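User: Here's a chain of 758 residues. Predict its fold as C-alpha cells.
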Amino acid sequence: MTDSGPTIIATCKQTRFHLLDDRPSQEVDIQGLNIVVRSSHQASDTNTTDKKPKASKSKSKSDGLELISNADLRLKAGVHYGLVGRNGTGKSTILRAMAEKLIPGISYLTRIAILQQTDAEIKDEDPSGISDTTRDKLSISDSDKGKTVLEQVMACDDLRNETKRKVDILSRSVENEEDSLAPVLAIRKLRHEQLQKQLFLAQKNAHLRSGSRGLQARKELKAIEAKVAISQNLLDQDPTSIDAETITIDTKAAVDLMEELQSQYDTIKVVDIEQQARKVLFGLGFKEASLSKPFGTLSGGWRMRCMLAGILIQNPDIMILDEPTNFLDLLGVMWLENYLKQIRESSSTTLVLVSHDRAFINAVCEELVILRDQSLTYFKGNLAAYEENFEYQKLYWGRMKEAQEKQVAHMEATIRENTKIGKKTGDDNKLRMAKSRQKKIDDRMGVQVSANGGRFKLNRDMVGWHDNARAEIEVPKDEKGIFIHLPDAPDLRFPGPLISLENITFRYKRTTPVVLNDINLTIHLGDRVGIMGLNGCGKSTLLQLLTGQREPGSVGKVTRHPRLKIGYYAQNSVGDLQKEGHADPALTALSTMIREVDGQCNEGEVRGLLASLGLPGRIASDVPVFRLSGGQLVRLAMAKILWNPPHLLVLDEVTTHLDFHTVTALASALSTFNGAILIVSHDRFLVRSVVEGKRDAEAKLNDDFEAEDDDDQEDNDQGPRRRVVYVLKTGKLVEQGDGVAQFENSLEKRVQKMLADR
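Assistant: Prediction complete.
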C-alpha cells in the first residue's frame, strides 16, 4: 500500500457567491477561510465509513490537522506580501492550496506561478550530494531531458507556449495544400477546446451558486452544454460530408484566427523573452557556457535555480516564492532582491514571499501577512515595524484592560454596598443604582475605542445584533518563546590553539584547478570566525579539511589540539536525517539520539538536550523523523553534535530551514557559547550578530545575547574574543576589515552592474 500524501481541504464562507467568469479580478478577498490537512489514511477512512453527510460536515474539521480557522485571505493586486509564521504552522501548505486553486474563490483563470520549498541539500562542490527525496521532487520528463537550460527556462512561460501551440496548429493546417480539410479540422479542434474550458467554468458556477443566481447559472450551463454537444458532432463529422461552402467559411476563420494569434505572439517579443531569461539566469549565478548545457545534467540546486528563473520571466497574476534564497549565495540573494523591487515598480503582479532572511523580507515586501493561532492578520510595514507595533499594542491594550479591571472592581464594590444598604433600609433608589451599575458592567464594559482610535459608538462601530454590546479587551500575547540552550565546552586542561591550518593548498585532482590556495587560519577557544563567499568557491571543502573529513594535499598541514572536540553541522545534515527517516519509518528524534549516544547518556539526559533545542516531549518521542519539519530536523542535527559538548562548533548554512524567530534565538544562544565558533553562511544577520557581536536594531535578540561592546567579554583569561569575517575568493581567505558590510558593498556594485548591462 502506497501513501498518496496528505490531502488539503479548503472551505470558505463565500463559496457560492464568488464570480467565476472569463474576467476574474486580480485581487483575492476570501472570508471565513478554513484549511484542514488530512493524511491519506484519514481521507480513506472518511470515504469508507462516513455514511451520514450531515454529521460529516460538522466533524470535518476534527478529521485532520486544522491550519487555518475562520481567517480572511486578502491580497491586493500588485502588492508584495511577506508571509510570516513559525516553523510548522503551515505556510507552505497554504501557498500550495493557493497555487493549486484548492481555495474556493480563487478563479480557475487566475495565473499563479509558484516556487515550492524542497528538502534538497546541495553541496557547493559536489553536484552528486542530493537526497533521494529531492531527486523525486525535481525529476524531469523525457521531453525535458533534451532541452538546454535556456530552453527549459523559456518553456516555463505558459501563455507564450499556449499561443505558439495554437499558431503552429493553424499554420500547419493552412499550409497543407494536399488536404483542404486540414484548416476546418484545426479550427474546430481549437473551438472545442475553448468550449470545454467554458463548460468547466459553467459547471463550477452552477454547483457553487444558489437561489436566483444558481437558476441563471444552470441556464447558462445548459446553453454551453448544447454548444459543446454541437462542437463534438462537428469534430466527429465524416469529412466526406462537409460541403464546399463550409470548407471556405471555416478555412477563412482559421486564417483570421491564425493572424490574430500571430499578432498576439509577436507582441510577446520572443527575442525579449530570451534576453530576459538570460538576464535572470546570469543573475542567479549561471555562466554563458552553462546555458547550453542539458537541463537533465544539472544538480538539484541548479535545477531549483532554473525553476526560479522560469517563474521570474513570467508575468503571472500572483507569484508565490517559498524560501527562494535557499540555494542562492549572497550575490544571488542581493540580485533577486533588486529584481523583485523592479517587478514591484513596473508590474501589477502580486507577490507572496516566505523567507527566513530578515533583510530580504524587509527590502522586498510592502506588507506582512502574519500566520498565528490559525488566523491571518495584516500589517503594512516591515518586520521591525511590526515587532515595534506589537509591543506598543501589547502595552496599550494591557493598560486599558488594567484600568478597566480597576473600574469594574470599584463598581462591583459600590453595587454590593448599595444593594446591602437598599435591602436593609428599603431604599429603592439605592437598589435602582445598583441595578443600573450592574447593567453597565454587563453591557458597556469592553473596548472603549473605535477601529480609528476615536470614542466607541455602538450604532456606528458594531452595527447589527450581537451577544455583547462591546467586544472584550484582548491583550496581544507573545507566542511561546523559542529558547535554545547550548552546553558549555569542556575544559582543555592545557592551553594552545584549537586548530591551525598552515599554507594549505588543495585541488581534487592534479589536472583540476586549485580550490584552496595558501590558506592560513588559526582558531583559539572563544574565537568567532565567519567565512562568506559565492557558491562553488570552496567553503565546504575548507570545512571538510578543517574537520578531518578530507585529508589535505602534499602542500600545507593541519594541526589540532590533542583534546579538541569538533561539532560539525554540514549542509547535507538535514538530507541525511531524511534518508534515515525514510529508511526506518519508526525512527523518532529520541530513538535517533539514544542510538547516537550509545549508552553514554540516559534517556532523561537525552530528552533534556532535545527539549533545550526545541524538541520537547511527544515531538521527540512520538513523531517519526520523516514527518519532522526542516526546522525540527535542524534541531535534531544540532543535538547529534552537542550531546558530547564540543570545543569548536563548525556550522555550514545552519539557517536554511529555520524561520527568522528561531534564527534570532539561535544567534542569542551562540553568542553565549564559551567555545569557539566557525560559521559559513549567506545569512547576514547571523554573521553580524554571532561573529561581529553586533546588536541588530531590527531584530529583538534575547536578553542574554552577548554583544561585542558588553563588559564581560573575556573567556578563560585569554583576553577579549577574536572576531573576524573572511571572504573566500579565488581560493584565498581575505579578511574583511568592515565585516559583512564590506562584502555587501562589493556585491552591491556587481549587482547594479549586472542589472545595467543585461
